[in-house]
Design a protein that fits this description.
Elements: H1 2-25, H2 30-41, H3 53-73, H4 76-81, H5 83-107, H6 112-121, H7 127-136, H8 143-170, H9 180-213, H10 220-238, H11 243-254, H12 260-284, H13 289-294, H14 296-320, H15 325-334, H16 339-352, H17 357-393
Helix pairs in contact: 1-2, 1-12, 2-12, 2-17, 3-7, 3-11, 3-12, 5-6, 5-8, 5-14, 6-8, 6-16, 7-8, 7-17, 8-9, 8-15, 9-10, 10-11, 10-12, 14-15, 14-17, 15-17, 16-17
């Protein structure tokens, strides 16, 4: 198994560097090439890389390191400054797709629970895809980038709460009623996570990092930062959130530390040379070409609904918060990608019986379509916004 995994890693690493070179040459987002490479190398076409446990493990570490890097590179003060618009954008970004796509589910013949779960799937936003493009175009440290980043983080949290509420309603026993354990699972754990995160940031991080700086060991500060990162991914999962939320927030807490740039450089080398490319390629491995053709109409309908509802929700919420049109278009575009979060939610729905085999393939394909289109749409919207800024300066 080890040799097979190493062989697939060779294909992935060589392929992603070639894809990155070509994307840079033709002025395309690098992540777009990596996603397409997953389809090319995967079972859909060449079948050189499969979704094995080993690849899945590397991909999981990749997404954790990516979100840790995003936290390290983020400006905490800027995120605080744009917290209010980020909250409004997140709410519109979740509930506009949820309402309209749930209605669409009814129209295509789904039952009520299945329709609601379909709405939840397409309420998700791929934080990783969005931030990778924002990072690539150096767009994390301004109004539109900060609102998009904040909204995408809150979006994931809202979707997790929606899943919890949905499951609670479906399994609710009227004879027992609403219990304290149910309230704890739905709300209590999430509140506790953020309370502990605040306490760790205020009282724990500085002494721990100071201790690591006194250690006579190679890259002790980076190793300690990774220990904190991995510990909080586990803690986030235990509290009913996604692991990437834990990775992002501990990175954000470390971003103002004096060692942040050193840690960022080390983690960037580790992540982008091995683990992060595996994550993006792994997304394309789930595509089935035959299913794409057999359910083309349904895939197109779901994809259009997914793109329009997120784009409109993000755009109009931003305009409500007095963001200019071009920047609002950037925010809306940044919310379009569903990526890994929607894939996770869809898998939960399938395993729980909320999504039948009849619709599952089309849903996965529509998620991939939004994931492929989003980097291009986001690049286009950033280009428009930057062009307007250049014209104002001139």
């Amino acid at each position: 198994m080890t040799l097979e995994l190493i062989k697939m890693l060779i294909f992935i690493l060589l392929g992603t560097k070639v894809a990155g070179h070509l994307c840079n040459k033709f002025n395309l987002p690098v992540v777009f090439g990596e996603l397409l490479l997953g389809i090319l190398l995967g079972p859909a076409i060449l079948n050189m890389v499969q979704e094995t446990d080993g690849v899945a493990m590397f991909a999981e570490i990749g997404i954790i390191l990516l979100m840790f890097l995003v936290g390290l590179e983020s400006d905490l003060n800027l995120l605080k400054r744009y917290l209010k618009p980020a909250v409004i954008v997140a709410m519109f970004g979740v509930f506009v797709p949820f309402i309209f796509i749930s209605i669409l589910g009814h129209l295509i013949g789904m039952g009520t629970p299945e329709s609601f779960f379909l709405g939840i799937i397409f309420s998700a936003t791929s934080l990783s895809i969005t931030v990778q493009v924002l990072k690539e175009y150096d767009y994390l440290d301004n109004e539109a980038g900060s609102i998009t980043l904040g909204a995408a983080i809150l979006d994931d949290t809202l979707v997790v709460i929606l899943i919890s509420l949905f499951t609670a309603v479906i399994t609710f026993d009227a004879s027992i009623g609403f219990t304290v354990p149910m309230a704890w699972d739905l709300i209590g754990k999430k509140v506790l996570f953020f309370v502990i995160m605040y306490l760790v940031a205020k009282y724990f991080i500085t002494p721990v990092m100071k201790l690591s700086s006194k250690m006579n060991a190679i890259k002790a500060k980076t190793a300690m930062a990774l220990v904190l990162c991995f510990a909080f991914t586990i803690f986030a999962e235990e509290m009913g959130l996604t692991d990437i939320i834990g990775a992002f927030f501990i990175g954000l807490m470390l971003s103002s530390h004096e060692s942040a740039h050193e840690i960022e450089a080390d983690v960037d080398t580790i992540g982008n040379s091995l683990f992060i490319p595996v994550f993006f390629v792994s997304i394309g491995l789930v595509i089935n070409i035959e299913a794409l053709f057999s359910q083309f109409g349904l895939i197109l309908l779901l994809s259009l609904a997914a793109i329009v509802t997120k784009l409109a929700g993000g755009y109009f919420a931003s305009r409500m918060m007095k963001v200019n049109r071009k920047s609002a278009f950037v925010v809306g575009s940044g919310m379009v990608s569903r990526g890994e979060m929607a894939l996770i939610v869809a898998k939960i729905g399938q395993e729980a019986g909320y999504i039948t085999a009849e619709f599952f393939t089309a849903i996965i394909a529509a998620i991939i379509v939004t994931t492929l289109i989003s980097p291009l749409l986001l690049k286009f919207s950033i280009g428009l916004e930057q062009k307007e800024s250049d014209e104002l300066i001139a």
